[in-house]
Amino acid sequence: MRSVLQNHVASFEHLPRLSARLSLVLRALPEEIVEDFVADSTFQITLENYRPGKGSQLFMSLPTHREHVSRCVVLRSKLDQAPEDFALYIIAHELAHAFLRNGGWKDIEDAEHAADALALSWGFPKPKLRWF
User: For residues 112 and 96, is the Cβ–Cβ distance under 8 A?
Assistant: First the structure.
């Protein structure tokens, strides 16, 4: 099953650090999360294709009759150059949103806090803010 998720990494091969980071986070996911993603034909991980002056374009699956949300994780190429802890956290946080269908988790109703808490449970804490 994990190999199916690893297929998502192939589209990031031209960004070697991001590809490695995505792969690391996917390998850390609990089996029930992996099974949930693999079973959902609308789940995808894609790279944002923003072009200055032109905007961006995104193709994603529409929600199914059983789901009210599409489960598309969009990552930015900047994560290839970002600090490691920050990039891993963002990837895990966005995957948490997809798993939670942008909803709450356990007793946490706020979607952002829920995604943070779930990412933390997978081993990816929100990094401390850095002032430059």
Answer: no
Tens of pLDDT, residue by residue over 87-103, are 999 999 999 999 999 89
| pLDDT tens profile 16-29 | 999 999 999 999 99
**Residue 109 carries which side chain, given as an amino acid letter?**
E
Domain extent, residue 78, equals 2-121
Residue 60 pLDDT more than 70? no
CB 91 within 8 A of CB 76: no
Q: Shortest CA distance to 119 belongs to which of 82, 98, 89?
A: 89
Nearest to 98 by CA among 121, 128, 118: 118
In a domain, 131, yes or no: no
- Give the 3-state secondary structure of residue 94: helix
